[in-house]
Predict the structure.
Amino acid sequence: MKPTEPDDIPPTPPLGTKAVSLPNEKARAFDRAVAEQAEAHAAQLAAQTAAEKKAPRAAPASADKPSAPPKQSRTPRPATPASPQATAMPPTSGIPAASSAAIAPAATSLFFDSLTAHATKLLAHPAAPRVKAALVPLWFLLLPLLLFGRALGDNWFLFGTDTYSHDYIMHLYGWDSILNAGRLPLWCPYLFCGTPFIASFALCPFYPSQLFYFLFPHNTAFTLQYVAAVWAAGGLFWWWLRRNLHCGAATAFWGGTAMALSGHFLTLTYAGHLQKMMALAWVPLALGATRIIIRRRPGAPPPTRVSWRDALPPPHARRGALLLAVAIAMQFLASHTQIAYATIILCAAYTAAAAGAQVWDARRRRMAMIASSSTTTTPPIAHQTLLRASIRGVLFVAALTLGFFFAGMQMFPGMEMSGISNRADGVSFTEAVETSYPPGEIAEYIVPRMRGDSVRGSAVPYYGAWGERIVSDYLGALIVALAVVGLVLRRGRMKWFLAAAGLVALIIGLGQFTPLYKVLFALVPGFNRFRSPGTFMFITNFCVLTLAALGMDELGRAAVRADRRRLLAASLGGVAAIALLVGAWATYENLGVDLTIATRAEFLLHHHYAIIVRSALEILLAAILILAVFSTPVGSSRRRITRAALGGLSIVLLASASLHFIRLEPLSGYRQFLENQALYSTLKDAPERPLRLLEERGLKIDAILHEVGVPTGYHPIVLGRYERLTAMLGSTSPAFGNLYDITYAHTYTSQSPAGTWEKLGQYGPEAVWKWAGEPRPWARSNAKILEVQDPDLIPSLLPQLAAEAYLAEPGALKAADVEAGAQSQAARLESWAPSRIVMKHVGDKRGIIPLAENFAPGWLATDARGNRLPVLPLNVALRGVVVPAGLGTVTLTYDPFSFRLGAFLSYLAVTLVLARALHLAKRRRRIMLISRETPQP
């Protein structure tokens, strides 16, 4: 049945009949007033449209932003005859059936139209734009506060697998060094017996949200990192849709909310991937800024000559370059280079595709001009377009370089560490594809937790092929259906780029299951330095959400012809019927199943049918709601309300699935575990410095909070030399302990480690041991130094000679002016701190003192007069110091040049940009003052 519009209300019987009442007469009067306002509004819109056709438009009009109604006097309501029959309310039972059928559609129409009128009136208020502009960032701040608010304070902390075992501890150590010790933690001497800390991306102290640590207690500041990440992701995705793709206000608001709640973003909370979430938040700004850089100026006349001056980027392109630099810098400062790498590839691909499309269009336009003209002389459109696109490409590269300089204090040490780390030559293909996304679980985009999950206390433990399921990629059938609508109905090339990028990223995420990853691994520079192919699937998440927002936007403005409407109805009806049948079948299969006595196979089968029912229901709702939207007139209140129901339901389903991965744990228990273990109480008064512990659980790193060093740890980036030495000797061997002065051990059984150990205490199943064999010195006096001519022989010689001699690399002794053999130098440790060591030495002649410390660029040795002393590697990874003859003092400090250079370039880049912005602001103000003082004609 066709919905009743105001003009379709049946005529009212004459006064005096029982079918007429005062409320119906008022409704008709109000409908006439609304109709008059609608006509005036339509006339105004027609006039605006005619005026806009004469001038070029920068962006399509938004269907979600209603225009203000024309200012006019309110139409007075007609006077109602004061007859008893008109004023008396007739009994309900006395209304004829025909009159009741006429009043019901009128009341429905009156409700929708009055709701629209009130909304239009509110939106037409002069303060409405300012209120709406403030509500957007306020909502995206309120949303994460609702999600994580309980973790603000000292009662709860936001649990994540990596949060529990890595991030929280790293942040505690790093910010304790900054706030309490007043020292930037460039070097951590406790993890892996010493490793660069900031350079290995264990901490990101220069990311803006890290400032919360200066203002709030640690747990609150840590939770605010997640709040800031969700706020930035939702807000920047809103900007991407609203300001860049010109979607409607309501669509952009919906899209930003969907992005903040999406599976591949919010569920990273349970994985504890904070740095990944911080980096992902800036992807919309990066791609949006790239579009601004490459965008053509609308309405520009065709060029008449090839000119460098005309091809220079206009102001909007330069602003886009600055935005791109900021976005890439934020991803680098978040210390997740894989996300930044993939974002740069995505933006570069768009730049190349957009430039190629512009050149192609210019060639077609030139050929059309030649075909329609009698002369072959035409403007050099293609050549000028190619020149302009090339210059925009240079601007794009310059923006990336500026972004790298912005993050220089983080990235220059990171680059230095990358060259000396375990990933200096890249990771092996086997390691890279170890966590490839299983092809059978792609349905996770529609079916949440289709094979269970690894969340604590989950009803269905994960039984898939991915190892563990601590994140979800769920978006929902409604959002995927909206993405299909956007791909079909949206005009322009952007949708095809998004579809291609999302598909390629999905194939890359499959890793070893497709040949594409192997090709990229072998050919694309830098690709072989990353593992976890599924990380690249954030591009798929981003592209699907963008297409869904475009589809939502088209539902508000697209009209379907009658013949296509029938085809659409038949298609969606068929989909709904299939979903209904499948859902009914799955429901029938689950009837009568008693899970209390079910076997595991029966339980998993019941789970499969349950998720089929849910997915079928989502598909059914998607088909019904999309069909309902297209069945209503464009611009009508019913279409808006139906579209709002579709968007709201998709958000509810998305939130219900993602919230499963947000878990809070009591903070007191976790902090007590970190601070009050019996192991560290035993070692608290140990006199040794540095204090090193052989930890049986190799991934345990909380020892760094107690200033206890461990030879193992949980962090993906370590010094390459140290990893090679560990592979040669083994971190639990007595030879390794001799080299690194490991004097204590912690086991979870009553059996001691290899070697001679004395038990200090037994705490339940745990035991603490102290080395009882030959003393293990920190600085080896009178050491025997041998030079190996062939570096390939070191792996075979080192296990045999580790207890007797130290091996130097070819040419090292000659460069240090030291003779091979037994050294006459002896040393004594005076003071030991994370980045500064002082020792005294004595000897008859110049020699080398081996230390139980890791060698790394950035360690500088000076004597009492400030003269620089050589530092060289021994036994592959140990640090040796060359000291002069006689008695003296040596000071070792960790002061890498890469950090100083990066800090200088960061300060320089920020200063230049701020100076340029200040200059432009002063120039704009001067122009405004001159324009005000100039008399108007």
Q: What stands out?
A: Residues 6-125 form one domain. The two ends are 62 Å apart (CA to CA).
